[in-house]
Design goal:
A hairpin with a 2-residue loop joins strand 6 and strand 7. It contains 13 helices and nine strands. The protein has a seven-stranded mixed beta sheet, with helices on both faces. A two-stranded antiparallel sheet has the order 6-7. The chain has helices at about 5-20, 25-40, 45-55, 65-80, 85-90, 90-95, 125-135, 150-160, 170-180, 215-220, 250-255, 255-270, 290-295; strands spanning about 100-105, 115-120, 140, 165, 185-190, 200-205, 210-215, 225-235, 240-245. It is of the alpha/beta class.
Length: about 300
């Protein structure tokens, strides 16, 4: 029986990444720059969405500054594609040695306390998952892929140093709550558009209405977990990474729904400012109507 096309595609990608895993981090970053050059100059989903998001969120920048930010952002998006060769295929100790500097709030180093780690789409969240799994019992929410073969590959690679991946469904959330009540950690990407039917509210993000999940608030209400925001960002010139973990105010998170969501989004805004080009602007954070209304107003 012939293998289906999606399976063949991912087998080929697996072989591709295995070959690339022999490259240095600097080499992977150089390859990312080449890919970004072509992505920036052609019509595709990544370049189109990155341009829309940056022109929407940074109207105060002139066209040249916007274009520079767009190009830099696409290069980091390309890095996220190539660096999987490093993160998924090299030995974990070799991978973690790439993190050469860190700024960690002392409150994070309390092993007797449950911790919720909010991980915006900033820098390398895949590397953050690996680092956290080495330093605590980590539960990580993920959305299972439609293809069983793809799902198995992603699950195997993200859990290869004992991260406990749980699906973003009722059974997965029960498992996550049990882990937090046993003083474990969990990592949640907070800036994805929540699935229909889940707890959510419209809140401000960078001056525009963004549908925001209330999952972090709900978890905080049902546990005694401390809450942090974290990212691992890239230094392209040195070909290494920097880890940042900051504490957030738990009382603000467990406030009423709108206040909690506004505080969460405001915290993300402040956190990504240092490396604004490493935020994933190719992700559609706002509604289609928001992008269209701004485009119409500029005509």
């Amino acid at each position: 029986m012939k293998k289906n096309k999606p399976e063949n595609k991912w087998i080929a990608l697996d072989v591709f990444y295995r070959a690339l895993s022999r490259c240095s981090t600097a080499c992977l970053f150089r390859l990312s720059k080449i890919l970004a050059y072509f992505v920036t100059r052609t019509k595709n989903k990544v370049s189109r969405q990155t341009q829309q998001s940056i022109r929407l969120c940074f109207p105060e920048l002139d066209t040249a500054a916007q274009n520079e930010l767009i190009s830099s952002s696409i290069q980091h998006t390309s890095c996220a594609f190539f660096e999987l060769a490093l993160l998924w295929y090299r030995p974990i100790p070799q991978v973690l040695k790439q993190i050469t500097t860190a700024d960690i709030d002392p409150a994070f180093n309390k092993p007797e306390t449950a911790r919720i780690i909010i991980a915006p789409h900033q820098g390398s969240w895949e590397l953050l998952n690996l680092w956290l799994a080495e330093h605590c019992t980590l539960y990580s929410l993920y959305k299972p892929a439609k293809s069983a073969q793809v799902d198995q590959l992603i699950y195997r690679k993200r859990s290869r140093n004992d991260a406990i991946l749980v699906p973003a469904n009722t059974a997965g959330l029960r498992k996550l709550l049990k882990g937090l009540n046993n003083k474990s950690c969990c990592m949640i990407l907070p800036d994805q558009r929540p699935a229909p039917g889940t707890a959510q509210i419209d809140a401000s993000f960078l001056g525009f209405k963004a549908t925001t999940s209330l999952l972090i608030k709900k978890l905080a209400e049902r546990t005694d977990a401390d809450i942090f925001i974290a990212a691992i960002t890239r230094n392209l010139s040195k070909a290494d990474y920097h880890l940042t973990i900051n504490a957030l105010n738990r009382d603000e998170i467990v406030a009423d729904d709108l206040h909690s969501a506004n505080y969460l989004n405001s915290s993300i805004e402040q956190f990504i400012q240092t490396d604004i080009n490493q935020y994933q602007w190719s992700y559609r954070r706002f509604s289609r109507q928001t992008y269209q209304s701004v485009a119409v107003n500029k005509r």
